[in-house]
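Q: Here's a chain of 309 amino acids. Please give me its 3D structure as tokens.
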Amino acid sequence: MNFLRLFRCLTVDACLVLALTGCVQKSVYLKQVQATDQLASQKTALEGQKGALEKDKAELNAQVADLNQQRKALEDNLSASKADNVKLLSTLDAKKGELNQRVAELTHENEDLSQKLRESQEAKDAEVQKLQATEQAKEAEIQKLKGTYDQLVGNLKDQINAGQVQITQLAGRLSVNMVDKILFNSGEASVKIEGEKVLLQVGAALKNIQDKAIRVEGHTDNVPIASTLQGRFPSNWELSTARATAVVRYLQDKAGIAPDHLIAAGYGEYRPIASNTTPEGRAQNRRIEIVLVPIESAAAPPAPATPTK
């Protein structure tokens, strides 16, 4: 402002000097003064514009600084995000590796399980086939025993009707139960003639059986051996065993049954099938049983019979 005033003063003074010297006309002077005022006004306007522009510039600089600060924050955030992304990608890669490894392990386990299931199914199928074959063999065996049973029943029909012989078939077990009096005289261990006929008929039915052992069991009641016979049979053990052995020898020698299929067993009074308190019960307990048993279990003792009251 002081500069403008000084400029005007200098301009006026210059005009005055020129006027005083008479070098210019008055009208020229006035024009010059008017031009000077216009210039001063323009300068003032320009200075105002300049101030406004400087104010705008300051505001723009402030906005630029704010934008720079925002950009810096964004760049920092971007850098942090990039670092997080790198870390996340690294974690994802590690997880991916773990998952791939687990998938491979599960695939291997699934293959192992599938193999085991196949092997288990094959084993199961083989077991089923084996069981079916066993069942078929048992069925064939039962049918074969049924034929032997029918033959024995036909051969011993009279003795069965007289109650002297009882024939039973249960699954794979066939037994012929004969009261002692049909085979032996009282206190004797020699097969009598009537008994020989019965044993020949039994032997005819059993002769062709190759897959069974024939166990001849001797049984007695609980009456002690008479004193007159104790020299030969000290107890019922010896009597039952001697009778079983006599039947075995007869089946071998007369009926032609292979000796390696024959077994003699004496049980004395210790496997009763009836009560020894009555004559009828004791008569049932004095018996010879011929039992067909599997060869591999031929040496196993039979289950004890339940006494009949």
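Q: Can you summarize the key feature?
A: The chain has six helices and five strands.
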